[in-house]
Amino acid sequence: MSGLSRSSRLLKNAEAALISAIEIYNKPAFAYREETFSILALNAWELLLKAKLLEANQNKVRCLHIYSTRELAPGRQSKKL
């Protein structure tokens, strides 16, 4: 699995999360099944969007990070994550 790109790994994880969500939802007696389904489905959606962003940006992880825009001194922005 190490031969796969980052976006491909995230896509596979998104698929696994969605399949898990559907399996949990289809269980007849499972406490909090709707809530668990929602969390897993949301996680799958987030992974899918990240995979798409990485694919569009040549698998550069920097496209997923947002840098602080708080100004430290006039005219200078923070370079920290």
Written overview of the protein:
This protein has 81 residues and is mainly α. The chain has one domain (6-77). The protein has two helices and two strands; from the N terminus they run ααββ. It has helices at 6-25, 33-56, and strands spanning 71-73, 76-77. Strands 1-2 form a two-stranded antiparallel ribbon. β1 and β2 (76-77) form a beta hairpin. α1 (6-25) packs antiparallel against α2 (33-56). It is elongated and about 60 Å long. The two termini are 29 Å apart.
Notable traits:
mainly alpha; 2 strands; elongated; 81 residues
Provide the number of structural domains.
1
What is the count of helical runs? 2
Global morphology: elongated
Helices and strands, in order, run as HHEE
Assembly state = single chain
The stretches of 5 or more residues where confidence is low (pLDDT under 50) are none
Distance between the termini: 29 Å
Gyration radius over CA: 18 Å
Beta content comes to: 5-15%
In helices, the fraction of residues equals 40-55%
The largest pleated sheet is described as: 2 strands, antiparallel
Give the strand order, joined by hyphens, for the main sheet: 1-2
In round numbers, the mean pLDDT is 86
Backbone structural class: mainly alpha
The count of β-strands is 2
Secondary structure: elements and pairs:
Blueprint: H1 6-25, H2 33-56, E1 71-73, E2 76-77
Antiparallel strand pairs: 1-2
Helix pairs in contact: 1-2
